[in-house]
């Protein structure tokens, strides 16, 4: 990476800091162990030590930057699973989200739930689950294309009276391609013409064999209308999450993924994010794709102002200079200076790229950074 300090380089190549400094000194460069190395210096040093290095463009620096303050694994803690519901139109995605929210959020926090935040969290047996409540397909595909996947588990909804449809298959394919585990919710089980066995055999035929038929796919029968099976569905999700051992380090700088964004009157650019790692605080300096700023306000999924978002928490962030795109990664850095430097590098990089290719840089390219 370009932003590599002398001692970090030394550690990476397994030589002492002294040796590195000596070589640079031989080249007429006076450096101390904390100085950043230039790209050409890194190449010379790599040559000298006979190691291969890969210098990456500034758009790729995010993980590296976020790793600055990475704290050892002992700080890793369990984090809630993040869920996206997908399925054919009218099979009950929205109803299911609403029902889960209604039954579970009400349990957690009495009072008005009005604001649409694009994602919300519920609690089941003292464990949190985050749901992405945003037009399923697009968000999911976009983010996958950008490698910024927000989702840990996909719920595929299939109406028990309608069975597998084209968008069901599409959803299955998306989840499979993204290697995201799925749970199948057979919905509308309350309907007189509901036929869950039909759904099961259709999916079994496609290679998604139910667990109770000796396969590996969890099927849960639910009704978004009556609420039947919802607890079962949440338990199944938590079980799957447990198997996945989802972990994060709440002590490091935040890395979050944007799932929705807009320009709001009086607020300016706002971004709904889900934190992937670390903790995002009010006051943090953040960069997000081409945009950057300082976190001025954070709202939780109930529209309430809060001070921070931990791993897998959803929230709305106010304070960016422009509206970022969905799928982009927001990273908190130690200082405004760092943020501005990286923002400048990115802008420059994109400009160069546009010049050199004389084609527009696609968002995918910009997003392909993590
Ligand atoms: P989406 O397009 O997948 O988001 O589907 P919706 O949630 O909008 O539901 C489509 C229609 O199916 C609506 O009229 C819902 O009221 C109805 N619906 C959804 N879930 C159920 C259910 O469990 N039982 C019954 N009877 N109707 C349902
Ligand atoms: Mg819907």
From TrEMBL:
Region (G-domain): 81-229
Domain Tr-type G: start-end pairs: 78-247
Binding-site residues for GTP, renumbered to this chain: 87-94, 133-137, 187-190
Subcellular location: Cytoplasm
Coiled-coil intervals: none
Domain of life: Bacteria
Entry function: One of the essential components for the initiation of protein synthesis. Protects formylmethionyl-tRNA from spontaneous hydrolysis and promotes its binding to the 30S ribosomal subunits. Also involved in the hydrolysis of GTP during the formation of the 70S ribosomal complex.
Protein family according to the UniProt entry: Belongs to the TRAFAC class translation factor GTPase superfamily. Classic translation factor GTPase family. IF-2 subfamily.
Name of the protein this chain belongs to: Translation initiation factor IF-2
Gene coding for it: infB
């Amino acid at each position: 990476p370009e932003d590599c300090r002398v001692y970090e380089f030394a550690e990476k190549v397994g030589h002492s800091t002294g040796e590195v400094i000596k070589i640079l000194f031989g080249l007429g460069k006076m450096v101390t162990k904390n100085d950043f190395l230039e790209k050409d210096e890194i190449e010379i040093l790599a040559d000298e030590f006979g190691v291969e290095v890969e210098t990456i463009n500034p758009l790729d620096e995010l993980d590296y930057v976020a790793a600055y303050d990475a704290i050892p694994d002992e700080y890793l803690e369990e984090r809630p699973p993040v869920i996206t519901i997908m399925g054919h139109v009218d099979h009950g995605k929205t109803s299911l989200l609403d029902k889960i929210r209604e039954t579970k959020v009400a349990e957690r926090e009495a009072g008005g739930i009005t604001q649409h935040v694009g994602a919300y969290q519920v609690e089941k047996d003292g464990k949190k689950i985050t749901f992405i409540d945003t037009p399923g397909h697009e968000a999911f595909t976009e983010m996958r294309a950008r490698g910024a996947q927000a989702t840990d588990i996909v719920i595929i909804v299939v109406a028990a009276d309608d069975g597998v449809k084209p968008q069901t298959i599409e959803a299955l394919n998306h989840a499979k391609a993204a290697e995201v585990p799925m749970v199948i919710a057979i919905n509308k089980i309350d309907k007189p013409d509901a036929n869950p066995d039909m759904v099961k055999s259709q999916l079994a035929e496609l290679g998604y064999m139910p667990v109770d038929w000796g396969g590996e796919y969890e099927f849960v029968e639910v009704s978004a209308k009556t609420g039947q099976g919802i607890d079962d569905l949440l338990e199944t999700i938590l079980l799957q999450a447990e198997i996945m051992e989802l972990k994060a380090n709440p002590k490091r700088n935040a890395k979050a993924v944007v799932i929705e964004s807009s320009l709001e009157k009086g607020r300016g650019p706002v971004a709904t994010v889900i934190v992937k790692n670390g903790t995002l605080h009010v006051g943090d300096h953040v960069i997000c794709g081409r945009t950057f700023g300082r976190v001025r306000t954070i709202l939780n999924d109930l529209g309430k102002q809060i001070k921070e978002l931990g791993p897998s928490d959803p929230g709305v962030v106010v304070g960016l200079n422009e509206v970022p795109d969905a799928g982009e990664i927001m990273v908190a850095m130690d200082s405004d200076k760092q943020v501005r430097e990286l923002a400048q590098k990115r802008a420059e990089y994109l400009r160069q790229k546009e010049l050199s290719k004389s084609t527009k840089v696609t968002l995918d390219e910009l997003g392909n950074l993590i």
